[in-house]
Amino acid sequence: MRQTKTGILLANLGTPDAPTPEAVKRYLKQFFKRQTRGGYSSSAVVAAAAWRYFTAAFAARRETLSIYLDGWRFAAHGI
């Protein structure tokens, strides 16, 4: 019997301009207006985004925020 393997492809479809609520809101508004997202339906994209948001909401917030902001500092200043 042959076993099949299933994989998940994660792709970055953009990022907010800054780590601020306003920038994230603007990014999400533009993101969900798009008609094409790699051939996936809007409901699948919304479900994936909701899953990502809720899993991140329960993660270790301080560590996550620190790592995220360090990435922005590096990108902005090359530090």
UniProtKB/TrEMBL annotation:
UniProt record, GO biological process: heme biosynthetic process
GO MF term (any one): ferrochelatase activity
Entry keywords, A to Z: Lyase
Pfam family of the protein (one): Ferrochelatase
EC number: 4.99.1.1
Name of the protein in question: Ferrochelatase
Organism this protein belongs to: Salmonella enterica I
Highest classification ranks of the organism: Bacteria, Pseudomonadati, Pseudomonadota, Gammaproteobacteria, Enterobacterales
Gene from which the chain derives: hemH_2
